Amino acid sequence: MSKKLVLAEKPSVGRDIAKALKCDRTGNGYIEGKNYVVTWALGHLVTLADPETYKKEYSEWKIEQLPIIPGKLKTVVIKQSGKQFNTVKHQINRDDISEVIIATDAGREGELVARWILEKAGNKKPVKRLWISSVTEKAIVEGFKKLKDGREYENLYRAAVARSEADWYVGINGTRALTCKHNAQLSCGRVQTPTLAMVQRKEEEIQSFKSQKFYGLETEVSGLKFIWSDSKGNTRSFDEAKIESILKHLNGKKAVVEDVSSQTKKTYAPKLYDLTELQKEANRIYGYSGKETLSAVQSLYEKYKALTYPRTDSSYISSDMVETLSDRVKACSIGGYSKFGARIVRGGIKANSSFVDDSKVSDHHAIVPTEERPVMSELSDRERKIYEMVIKRFLGVLMPPHVYEETKVELRIGDELFRAKGKLTVSEGYRELYSEDEETVEKKKAEFKRGMEISTVSLKKTSGETSPPPRFTEGTLLGAMENPRKYMDTDDKELLKTIGETGGIGTVATRADIVDKLFNSYLLEKRGNEVHITSKGKQLLALAPEDLKSPVLTAEWEQKLEKISKGKLRKDEFIKEMIEYTKAIVSEIKSSEDSFKHDNLTRSKCPSCGKYMLEVKGKKGKMLVCQDRECGEKQSISRVTNARCPECKKKMEMRGSGDSKMFICKCGYREKLSAFNKRKGDQKSKLSKKEVRNYLNKQEDDNINSALADALAKLNLK
Question: Looking at the UniProt record for this protein, which Gene Ontology cellular component terms does it annotate, in alphabetical order (predicted)?
Fold first, then answer.
């Protein structure tokens, strides 16, 4: 009896599919049942080959070898996951396997994962495609009833290969050219370089900003604050003399109520989360990085089956999901949310176009709860907070709007107008969900009538200064990557439209990684919650090819990749253009007369090669790194740990090595590691030496790989 082979992207998803298909016999890297065999990748099992695969001399970085343009790019099995590839290959080629079902993530990269494996394994069998957005048993079973012919996704695969090969040509050659030319670890790419340029432009805006002092007037009547405004509605003036004159002329005079108006208004719940919006909000509320949020929501999707597929750029659900909303509400009606869930179900669920729109759902719908309820005690603190964020957005769109009455009052004092607003809640609506998170100040409804006179008013002059635009946080930087239109130096409406439709630069799945690479390459650094560009980052932008700095390049690429995915452009035409572009940027870098200068040299000599070392600041601490990229020596100076200062409760830094290791806090507190261990022991803490080490290791920067390795990690190159 023939069977069908199902290829999942990860073991956890493979196990979920196997369970839904009643497969119960576990093998080494697969699970088998009566009708199906389920196997899996480990993410990518196959990737594009390193340059040295084509010529051994490419293993040494030499500028005269560039550009590296092989006749045809080859794929290779990733060495570390070769065992699982052989397992998958064996299952594909079994005599009793009649058909292969691709069940990797439903998207461009998921298609690439599967197709490269099938191609490398020499698959000749028919291919079907499973396309689902959650891995609950119900969703899997329904998905298998609606399998698509694999041929429908061949153009999507071609677009994925085109994206990967283009990034290889530009990334490999651009990075090697910059690094060899300036003997410094410098990397460039069509996503990371424009992201860096956006931070630089923000810095330039802040530096060029000139603060101005402004002035205004206010008065208080019956507990309501009235603000002066001029004939154009401006509430502040840069002319202090004018304000002083009005104050002198009007102070102590009577006021007349010129107008009173009341209007009932509504505010609606915010949209459902896409990944970027969730990352932005989690950063704003909890300070989580994009990677931390993605890790938590991925766990809630894969491990707990509590949320739908996270790597989505849509904030809407499709109409076929409406019938499942009641079950989803019941599943997430936990703890304090149970009363809201019961109210929604009791009142009947009313779907509308504010959150249900098939035309605004492409690969995946918004992140929403599934029909499965997680055991909250099993979730980590971060997972619980992320889950509750999604619950609130989900329940919110199903609840009535917030209704309030807004009253506007206008006072006339002499020839000047003063305006005030007051709000009174009529119906709390969805805002009841957020009552614990937000401090709502509502003004009492004061009794004012048109023509009413106030005998004397006391005016007060107010003042302030205009503020520069705020620096990026990790959250707002992710938002700028999603919508970079203001950073595009173009009037081309089609390009501007495309960058909006394609979701900006990078993808929802890769943006957090790109930002993290910029930190790990010491091109960006964090000061508090703010993101700053480093001197190295500024120099890299000065040395990088001009069009690599703008999101326009990505917009142009995405236009063409979209055409490839729809069969309107041949992949080979696009790659030919990318090769010509690669030759141009290599030539530009080679002929440049600019130079790179390390401005973070220390007087500490490298113990391996004797050259002076560089002091670099990572996200979690400071390190010394050899300036010679071929040496690669690195030493830790300090790192932020999880250990809390006993005086101010902030996280302390660890400095020194061996017996001289010491905790140091910004407040001035200092404590040797030995004393710290003794203090913990005296407090009868269960903290072991191993746990203390984990405190530190958890907070250490990842191994400080070369900037090249960071830049090319997405390409799975060694």
Answer: cytoplasmic replication fork
In the 3-class helix/strand/coil scheme, how is 569-588 assigned residue by residue? CCHHHHHHHHHHHHHHHHHH
Q: How many CB atoms lie within 10 A of CB 342?
A: 13
Phi-psi region of 77 (alpha: psi -120 to 50; beta: other; left: phi over 0): beta
Reply yes or no on whether 434 is catalytic. no
Q: Which of 288, 309, 316, 581 is catalytic?
A: 309
Distances (CA, A) of 617 to 383, 527, 624, 638, 709: 29, 10, 9, 9, 18
pLDDT at 315 over 50: yes
**How far is it, in rounded angstroms, from Cα 11 to Cα 377?**
24
274 is in an annotated binding site: no
In this structure, the chain runs to a length of 718
Query: Both tokens of residue 378?
Result: 């099993």
The pLDDT assigned to 702 comes to 37
How many other C-beta atoms lie within 10 A of the C-beta of residue 402?
Answer: 20
Distance CA 248, CA 150 (A): 80
What are the two backbone dihedrals, phi and then psi, of residue 653, each rounded to the nearest 5 degrees? Answer: -90, 150
pTM of the model: 0.77
Mind listing the pLDDT tens digit for each residue in 120-155?
A: 999 999 999 999 877 788 889 999 999 999 999 999
Q: Does residue 67 have a cis bond before it (omega within 30 degrees)? A: yes
Domains in the chain, start-ordered, CATH in brackets?
A: 3-146 (3.40.50.140), 164-207+473-591 (1.10.460.10), 252-264+403-456 (2.70.20.10), 275-398 (1.10.290.10), 631-715 (no CATH)
pLDDT over 90 (residue 622): no
CB 73 within 8 A of CB 193: no
Q: Which amino acid is at 563?
A: K
At 439 the pLDDT is: 47
Distances in whole angstroms, Cα of residue 209 to Cα of each of 53, 203, 530, 672 = 51, 10, 18, 45
Q: Is residue 490 pLDDT above 80, yes or no?
A: no
- Residue 34 three-state SS: coil
What's the N-to-C CA distance of the chain in angstroms? 43
| Closest listed residue to residue 429, CA positions, set 343, 336, 515 | 343
Q: Residue 591 — φ and ψ, nearest 5°?
A: -85, -5
Q: What average pLDDT score do residues 614-627 get?
A: 72
Q: Which residue has the tokens 């480093």?
A: 534
